[in-house]
Amino acid sequence: MYDDNNIFAKIIRGEMPAFKVFEDERAVAFMDAMPQSEGHTLVVPKARARNFFDIEPAVLAELIQATQHVARGVQKAFSPGGMRIVQFNEAVAGQTVFHIHFHIIPCYAGAELRTHNRDWADKAVLAEHAERVRQALAK
Ligand code: 5GP
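^ thats the input. predicted complex w/ guanosine-5'-monophosphate below
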């Protein structure tokens, strides 16, 4: 059911790098490596859970709180006109990494979202975007 070798588990354990914007004892947030828009950020619980159905309700509640906190930082950092908060369950629904996470996807007037999970972003751009979110969260 849950595979400890999924990429987000490796990021949580520090075995793989990520451009982190937030971390506490329960969750970590980092830039999506194939962003659908500028500022696309992922919020991931440290608890082992595959999706919306096997996560403990109390852990899910904490994850939503962390997602709101990080989304406020993304809003301050990028000032999009709106934002999608999205979560997929199983491949048929679009899930590609099987450790539950929320997507924070800023939406900008006149700009279509890029395709999910397709083009890797430039690392320097992700680093700069992560810094903007970290600074916004620190205010
Ligand atoms: P899902 O399709 O499971 O809802 O979302 C997985 C997300 O993880 C996708 O948006 C994809 O771009 C992103 N992603 C895949 N591999 C990596 C990675 O190695 N690092 C980061 N930061 N994001 C990744």
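Residues 7, 18, 30, 32-34, 88, 94-97, 116-117 surround guanosine-5'-monophosphate (CB under 6 Å).
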